[in-house]
């Protein structure tokens, strides 16, 4: 099992550009999450999904969109990138809704200039 | 509004001694607490958890204590090892249909010196 994989590892984006961060899990988990971590801060939930076709907003959803067409994939879309979206983005998946079973990917470091 | 706070950005201890990492929370709806460990360039990994119906949970060298009245929890690592050097995040879950939506603290960088 590869677990949770994220691409790219690092990207530089210009202000106003758009991009999609990819997240794939091969554990057949129902729950998937996107978090962002700013320097010196904890992870904040952007969006989450409880199954294919079902998504909902987390704590900081503005400027992002998600879709969940399959169990495996949960891409995060940034539209009109802003410097405030410079962050490290973590995707996680979970078989159950509890926190112990959340497996995190290695993260995508995004720089918006 | 930081609902989960880790007020110590960093902690340095000697190998073999005890490491104590602290976490405070403000939301009374939180009823499940977790600690995650994170190495550089990796995602967080689950370490230990505690339900609000308990005041202590132990797993090997790691023990988490919960003081509900003070809204405070702590992670004790005994004895500390150099491999424990990492960032430690406290996280909380609210009851009911939380769907695993974790609220994280800012993290504490633990350095264990040989």
The helix count of chain A comes to 0
What gap, in angstroms, lies between the N and C termini of chain B?
Answer: 38 Å
Indicate the radius of gyration of chain A in whole angstroms.
Answer: 13 Å
Rg of chain B, Å, rounded? 14 Å
- Contiguous low-pLDDT stretches of chain B (5 residues minimum) are none
This entry's quaternary arrangement is: heterodimer
What is the structural class of chain B? mainly beta
Q: What structural category do the secondary elements of chain A indicate? A: mainly beta
User: What is the overall silhouette of chain B?
Assistant: globular
Relative strand content of chain A: over 45%
Order of helix and strand elements from N to C terminus of chain A:
EEEEEEEEEEE
User: pLDDT under 50 segments of chain A (min length 5)?
Assistant: none
Biggest chain contact: A-B, 30 and 25 residues
Strand content of chain B: over 45%
Label the overall shape of chain A. Answer: globular
Distance between the termini of chain A: 36 Å
Largest sheet of chain A: 7 strands, mixed
Write a concise keyword list for the protein shown above.
A: 113 residues, mainly beta, 7-stranded mixed β-sheet, 4-stranded antiparallel β-sheet, 50% strand, B: mainly beta, 5-stranded antiparallel β-sheet, 55% strand
Structural topology:
The complex is a heterodimer of chains A (113) and B (114).
Chain A: E1 4-7, E2 10-13, E3 19-25, E4 31-37, E5 43-51, E6 54-57, E7 64-66, E8 76-78, E9 87-94, E10 103-104, E11 108-112
Parallel strand pairs in A: 2-11
Antiparallel strand pairs in A: 1-3, 3-8, 4-5, 4-9, 5-6, 7-8, 9-10, 9-11
Chain B: E1 4-5, E2 10-14, E3 19-25, E4 30-38, E5 45-51, E6 56-59, E7 62-67, E8 72-77, E9 86-94, E10 103-104, E11 108-113
């Amino acid at each position: 099992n590869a677990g949770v994989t994220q691409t790219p590892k690092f990207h530089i984006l210009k202000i106003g550009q758009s991009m999609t961060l990819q997240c794939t899990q091969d554990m057949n988990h129902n729950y998937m999450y996107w978090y962002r971590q700013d320097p010196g801060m904890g992870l904040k939930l952007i969006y989450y999904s409880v199954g294919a076709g079902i998504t909902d907003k987390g704590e900081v959803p503005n400027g992002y969109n998600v879709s969940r067409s399959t169990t495996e994939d949960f891409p995060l879309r940034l539209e009109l990138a802003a410097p405030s979206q410079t962050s490290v983005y973590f995707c996680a998946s979970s078989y159950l809704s509890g926190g112990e079973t959340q497996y995190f990917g290695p993260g995508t470091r995004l720089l918006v200039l | 509004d930081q609902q989960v706070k880790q007020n110590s950005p960093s902690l340095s201890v000697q190998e073999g001694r005890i490491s104590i990492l602290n976490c405070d929370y403000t939301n009374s709806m939180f009823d499940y607490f977790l600690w995650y460990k994170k190495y550089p360039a990796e995602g967080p990994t689950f370490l230990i958890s505690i339900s609000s119906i308990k005041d202590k949970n132990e797993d090997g060298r790691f023990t988490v204590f919960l003081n509900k009245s003070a809204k405070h929890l702590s992670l004790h690592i005994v004895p500390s090892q150099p491999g424990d050097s990492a960032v430690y995040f406290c996280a909380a879950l609210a009851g009911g249909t939380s769907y695993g939506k974790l609220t994280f603290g800012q993290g504490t960088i633990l350095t264990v010196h040989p």
